[in-house]
Amino acid sequence: MTNSFAYLLLTPNDMAAVDTAAAASGMSSIGLMDRAGRAVAASALRHFPGALRFVVLCGPGNNGGDGYVAAAALNEAGTRCVVYSLGDPAQLRGDALEARSRCPLDTQPLDNYVPLPGDVVIDALFGAGLSRNVSDSVAALADRLAATNTPVLAVDLPSGLCGRRGVALGAALRADRTVTFVARKPGHVLMPGRELCGELEVFDIGIPRRIVLAKAGSLAENAPSIWSSAVPSPLGDSHKYTRGHLVVFSGPADKTGAARLSATAGLKRGAGLVTVASPTDALSVNAASLTAIMLHAIDDVADLADWLGSAKLSAFVLGPGFGVGEKAREFVLALKGKRLVLDADGISSFKDDPDTLFSAFSEGETRLVLTPHEGEFARLFPDLAKDKELSKPEKALKASALASAVIVYKGADTVIASPDGRALINTNAPPWLATAGSGDALAGMIGALLAQGMPAFEAAAAGVYLHGEAANSLTPDMTAEDLAKRAGILPNKEP
């Protein structure tokens, strides 16, 4: 799905399949463990040169095996290193047992560990495959390390963090740094996992990319390499009509600001023409604040039908400040053959009858983009929203299939999902993007890209990423008006 291996995300099941395939190809599994553990030791020496003592916490599985290799390497390097184990090391199996046998250091029970000044903890208790809540003793350890501000270097993932969902399983250690192998997992980039991991390093332990790509799914980090080839570039003979006509529907006279924000962002994002379709009673309010953006009076669905039959309109945004109710539903159904971004009030208008919305856009190419935040997602997809066993990408993908729409499941870790099974996690949004009106600007940006002919998934992914870039170009005191004016920013170059 992406031209860059660096943006690939492997679920724990994907990673297990990669390990199995690597072993089947003749690669030594203990050799891979040795490379992983030595990479952890090298990171510890490089990033924590002032450590008085390295404390390696080893679990009962292969993550613990990585820890024993790291401990042996740190001991070889002449550092002061101690090892604590969760469970009886004599019960280890396979490569983890072999790694323990090669480590010359004595092992003490995990419950005996008391953090001392100058300690750096190497957390090798659990890896990405953990699926159950951690024990009370591990939860207490996490609290002790946090209370003493003891630096933590996590192996693969901070222990207690779900590699698939990015959530703490009862409790989780908070790492200053995390070293993972082959590729990142969803838990590294979904919130709150992204914050629990600290600085992240991905180390290549030698598994060929062909094996990794053969077992990888369609989940990646959102990045320009995925969609940049679909972004239209104005040609020498371009004119406003070839760059698309975006329509943004306005709410009543006292709720017009959101539509203008969306329209401004759409114009800045490259739509050749942008029209605010306004109720008659709101025309004067909108006209007082618009110049390059046009106005057209639309009071009811009959007006809309007449306009659709007489004008060349490329894409639509409905929802920002529009109002919840029958009018919104009628307008959306009148647009069922069109390219539409449905946001905010437009989404909430279908909370009692989502199937009508879904069926209206179920045929032909994907034309509908839904942009719900957490609450709006729960209104359209209540069963998915309350399922705690599903990750955010899994929820978004299931919702996308149900709705025959691209889903932009908003948040600090916005997920973009397509009915064809592709999903992206966005990571470039700064905290100050959480401000009133920022979602209106996003809807306009996606609408503009749809109007210019981008496929729905690529338009949504590009809009989300460029929305983050626009916010990053501003200071934390930005407003949505500032953001809309920066909607035309170009993406930073990728590494």
Automatic annotation (TrEMBL):
Biological role stated in the UniProt entry: Catalyzes the dehydration of the S-form of NAD(P)HX at the expense of ADP, which is converted to AMP. Together with NAD(P)HX epimerase, which catalyzes the epimerization of the S- and R-forms, the enzyme allows the repair of both epimers of NAD(P)HX, a damaged form of NAD(P)H that is a result of enzymatic or heat-dependent hydration.
Cofactor(s) listed in the protein's UniProt record: K(+); Mg(2+)
Protein name per Swiss-Prot or TrEMBL: Bifunctional NAD(P)H-hydrate repair enzyme
GO BP annotations, alphabetical order: metabolite repair; nicotinamide nucleotide metabolic process
Residue runs in coiled coils: none
Cofactor mode of binding and number, as noted: Binds 1 potassium ion per subunit.
Transmembrane segments annotated in the record for this chain: none
Residues that bind K(+): 63, 123, 159
HAMAP family: NADHX_dehydratase, NADHX_epimerase
PROSITE patterns noted in UniProt: YJEF_C_3 (PS51383), YJEF_N (PS51385)
Family statement drawn from the similarity comment of this UniProt entry: Belongs to the NnrD/CARKD family. Belongs to the NnrE/AIBP family.
Organism: Rhizobium soli
GO molecular-function term, one example from the UniProt record: ATP binding
Keyword hit for ATP-binding: yes
Record domain YjeF C-terminal: where: 223-494
Subunit structure: Homotetramer.
Ranges where the YjeF N-terminal domain occurs: 15-213
Pfam family, one: Carb_kinase
Known catalytic reactions: (6S)-NADHX + ADP = AMP + phosphate + NADH + H(+); (6R)-NADHX = (6S)-NADHX; (6S)-NADPHX + ADP = AMP + phosphate + NADPH + H(+); (6R)-NADPHX = (6S)-NADPHX
Keyword Isomerase included in the entry's annotation: yes
